[in-house]
Amino acid sequence: MSQASKLALIKEMIDSAESNLRSAKAMINELTGSSSKSIYAKMAEELPSSDDSGDSFIEGVFDGQKMLGNDKKEYPIPANYASKSKLIAGDILKLTIKEDGTFLYKQIGPAERNRVIGTLTFEDGQYKVIANAKAYNVLLASVTYFKAEIGDKITLVIPAIEESDWGTIENVLPKDTDISGM
Q1: Residue 96: which of 87, 106, 82, 85 has the closest Cα?
Q2: Average pLDDT, the chain
């Protein structure tokens, strides 16, 4: 068996194992009566809601791509804002909707963060950083902002308290950096 076919088989086995784990978790949640809502959706529902006095703001939780509002709606986050602000899943945001329809986001509660070093890859139409044997999705805006290339070593910021499929690029390490001693 060639090395390429062995790698393809390993990838297929990992994908199958991940699918089985997701199914097992869903069955456990079903049997224990746990909600299938993400931790971020639950966090968003616990945030205070605006009153009916005409205030046009909504608080929510960033899930890696969008804001889950305390009104149980989803709000798009501009990728360049998420990238430059280095938002991670679990960050608390406040959205102000101005009279002219402009959306203004502000981070009001950063989530606890961890940093890991990984390698930038591209698969299934998505940039990812492989770190600690896990693939974290990263925004295209972050990749282009940092001028990162596939194979670059990346410092990735991830949530400390909850597993997430998303991370944010903090830095691209110079190509001649030796991280084996770090």
Answers
A1: 106
A2: 84
